[in-house]
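new request in #modeling-help
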Amino acid sequence: MAYSELIKDFSKIRNYMRQFYVYGFKTRGEYEAKSARSYDNEKRRIESWLGEYMSFRQESAGKISYISVDSGKVGHNPLYNAFKAKSFTTNDIVLNFFILDILQDGESLSASEITDIIAEDYLSYFSEAKIIDEATVRNKLKEYEKEGILKAAKDGRRLTYSLEQDKIDLSSWQEAIDFFSETDPVGVIGSFLLDKLPDRSHVFSYKHHYILHALESDILCTALDCMSRDLKATITLNSPRKKDMQVYEIIPLRIAMSTETGRGYLLAAEMSHKRLNMYRLDRIEEITPGEVAAGKAKYMSDAEVYIKYLWNTSSGRNQSTYHLEMILHIEDSDEHILRRLEREGKHGSITALEDNRYRYSIDVYDAGEMIPWIRTFTGRIEKLSCTNPSVTETFYHDLDALYDMYGGEK
Amino acid sequence: MMLFSEVYGSYFNAVAAILSKAVSGDLTKTDIYDIIGDKAFAESTLNIPNTLLSGKWPLLTEQMHTPLKHAPSMPLTTLQKRWLKSLLSDPRIRLFDVSCEGLEDVKPLYEQDDIVYFDQYRDGDPFEDPSYIQHFRTVLTTLREHRDLYVRFQSGKGRQHVWECTPYRLEYSLKDDKFRLIISGGDRPGTINIARIMECVLLDESDPETLEIPAREKANVVFELTDERNALERAMLHFSHLEKETIKLDDQHYRVILTYNKDDETELLIRILSFGPMIRVTEPASFIELIRERLDMQKKYLSSQE
């Protein structure tokens, strides 16, 4: 099949884009491609979509291609471009413009009438154009009705189509869309809207701007749709620990997003084991809406309790809580450390002790998840204790390793 | 309700713009290439002009005429409307003067409670405070209309300042949940937290051509990463928002060069510390010294644990 910069299926290219963006050290031979040509085609597409953001360097092992973005400088997420590269047929593009043009005067017409107008008033311009049959036109009309572009009405036995009303003043939304297209988890929809506007504003820039989640926009959008309509869903999961794809029936309940990595998770009730699980969005290959989720309310109330004791997203092995305490020494001149503790310490509590000492305590499912955060207070940790002893062991063991690493004395 | 659909595609957008110009009767071949360059992908010029002008897509004749009677336009899709409706319940939407008309009967794609930012800081800006909204909108107007700004604000250390300045960008951090105004270069480069503004007033227009991009001092840090406990994936994601270069040394070790804003050095320092011994900073010596200082401070507490 001839190369095209457009694609039919998103899942294959998603993985390449992740690897090019996140890692950026693999040579051509290190990609798990079906063939060298498959790799070359995918790379060529990504280069075409991302232009200047695709870079390469030569190393002894070979040429390394990677996506390089300083997201502080980028006002618009370039990865959204991948969602604007869906392939289509000649009929798809031709019918899109003909149907919308025919209905733009506000008329309501049947599939048969539209088919006739296309043949007489549009295709007649072109001597070699193929006639488009009524069934093809009808399918497109139904598809556009489903997307909310057209509305259908019964006139006796006659089914007619007209343009869906659109009273939205998009220009009043320009700056809001500009902002939310970069900060909302499904901001790609905002990017589609910005494409409809004549200009782009250059008002905002972003710090701690993680753009990779864009590649899961389709999965997330379907999950949100299932949540809003109280539907079950079937997910196909790619787990690095298991050889085959795993398929689960779930009730999607919440989306959990990290502002420190941009990674997204789906909190859902897994139906075969009747328990709550977090699924990484970047591990979900496919999600399909199912039937109405009976019993969702009970799982939702379970989810409220579940969320209460999470530090990040792990509930540990048995969903039991552990108590952690940390005594910090904070000088009067280091008040910002206390502010950090308050704003970053989630549901933990802080007690002022004597001599500039503060006790931070918390109950969580997986205290091990807290270790990276605790390490950010290195230099001020007087004491760390936890009812899960492996947490303190790991912390102090790693601290010893750091002393060895940087040549300090213990 | 498809998100990955050709109706949102760059090809449809580019062809719509080309046909729009054809309807008005002044389309040229150069326009076609310009529009594609602006709205589609790098290689699209290899496909779209030929397919359009050859009649494969019967939308445009060789003489640049189209059978369309109107400039192409498409109503918003249900997906687009549902997304906009969701934004209406976000507290930050009050910062913008949007019209809600047309969204009355639309079901939102999600509610605010459906999405939890589990590691977002708890002291975000007061987006619903009327004076905050007023200050934000004034700043937004200066940026939109290229105006200078009079601003009275309180610094992080509690001191009051009065500046007349040229705003450059409004910077938002999702992690901090805060907006900061970045000031253009010149006499007063710097940043002002919007929440710390006490008063601000629009001043005269400034010439956008003379706007100086604030120069932020950049620095590099080089570290070796040991891929244990999934550290490679965690670090690559954690630092993915910064410009970086990663070199594989062997199956378990990687060298990473990160470029960061010098202003953010303390933040980067504690983020590197958060990886513990999985990351060993090798350059520059000044950064290694910062780590040693923290470790030395920590040393005095070790004995109490042992």
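bot summary: The mean pLDDT of chain A is 93.
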